[in-house]
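Q: What residues go here?
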């Protein structure tokens, strides 16, 4: 074990607050256990955090206070990274998943990332991103690309972000992405964010349900390059272009999108068409009524709400 982490563990295991209650991943990330079976460490400096996420083996990492990092920092498999309290913050950089798996990221605020706040790529799988807040990343808040699979993004608050969530990084990535990029996106608040909630290429199915979309200036959801989105039980308020699919988007070819049980208030029409693999062939889920989504999600999404 890295000497620095040994010191962290020696200093914190005796005095650290008890770990937060275990959480259970759902959707496509079902079965993700994170750091279960590993030690629990509390980190409050950059060096401690970077050492912990680079440790081999299961580890439960509790983030205390505000920690500044740069660029995108790699996270090894079998980690749970959880913010303590309501103010744990990662600023200046983000997390990168390269051939990683079985990781949980919860209860953190990501601010001013100089690239992506969370990048899930290179065949990474079983990643659960839950109850975080994203503010002002230079690029994406959450990108899921390059053959990543079995991901759930739930109960997050995208607060005025621009490029909120990209699934499939380019039109030329069919060889790596077709048959992958299975993602569940539920109970997130896309709050004044501009676009990509998500923008999908190739992934099928991408299950977008019970999310709250408010004042998304450019568009809500886009399915392209034969991607398949099931959009159900969401609430759109003040979204001029809630959904694109059969006409494609920008330079990308059309995708497929099935929409059902959504509510559109002061919003445009949803462009839907084609058929999509039912997520219920992979996992069970309970759909909340779309009318309850604004109160449910605005009260429960984001860091500090677990």
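A:
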């Amino acid at each position: 074990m890295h000497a620095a982490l040994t010191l962290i563990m020696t200093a914190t295991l005796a005095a650290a607050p008890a770990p937060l209650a275990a959480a259970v991943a759902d959707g496509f990330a079902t079965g993700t256990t994170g750091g279960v079976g590993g030690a629990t460490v509390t980190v409050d400096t950059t060096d401690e955090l970077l050492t912990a996420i680079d440790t081999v083996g299961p580890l439960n990492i509790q983030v205390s206070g505000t920690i500044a990092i740069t660029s995108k920092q790699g996270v090894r498999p079998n980690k749970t990274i959880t913010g303590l309290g309501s103010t744990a913050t990662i600023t200046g950089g983000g997390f990168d998943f390269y051939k990683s798996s079985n990781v949980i990221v919860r209860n953190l605020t990501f601010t001013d990332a100089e690239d992506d706040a969370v990048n899930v790529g290179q065949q990474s799988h079983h990643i659960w991103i839950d109850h975080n807040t994203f503010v002002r990343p230079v690029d994406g808040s959450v990108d899921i690309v390059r053959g990543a699979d079995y991901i759930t993004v739930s109960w997050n608050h995208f607060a005025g972000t621009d490029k909120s969530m990209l699934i499939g990084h380019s039109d030329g990535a069919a060889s790596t992405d077709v048959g992958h990029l299975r993602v569940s996106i539920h109970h997130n608040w896309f709050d004044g964010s501009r676009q990509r909630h998500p923008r999908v290429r190739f992934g099928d199915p991408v299950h977008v349900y019970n999310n709250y979309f408010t004042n998304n200036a450019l568009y809500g959801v886009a399915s392209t390059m034969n991607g398949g989105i099931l959009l159900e039980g969401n609430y759109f308020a003040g979204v001029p272009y809630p959904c694109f699919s059969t006409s494609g988007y920008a330079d990308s070819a059309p995708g497929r999108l099935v929409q059902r049980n959504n509510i559109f208030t002061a919003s445009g029409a949803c462009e839907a068409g084609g058929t999509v693999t039912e997520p219920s062939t992979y996992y069970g889920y309970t759909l909340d009524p779309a009318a309850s989504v604004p109160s449910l999600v605005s009260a429960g999404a984001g860091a500090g709400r677990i």
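A: Context that may help when evaluating the design: The CA atoms of residues 28 and 73 lie 24 Å apart. The chain is about 10% helix and 35% strand.
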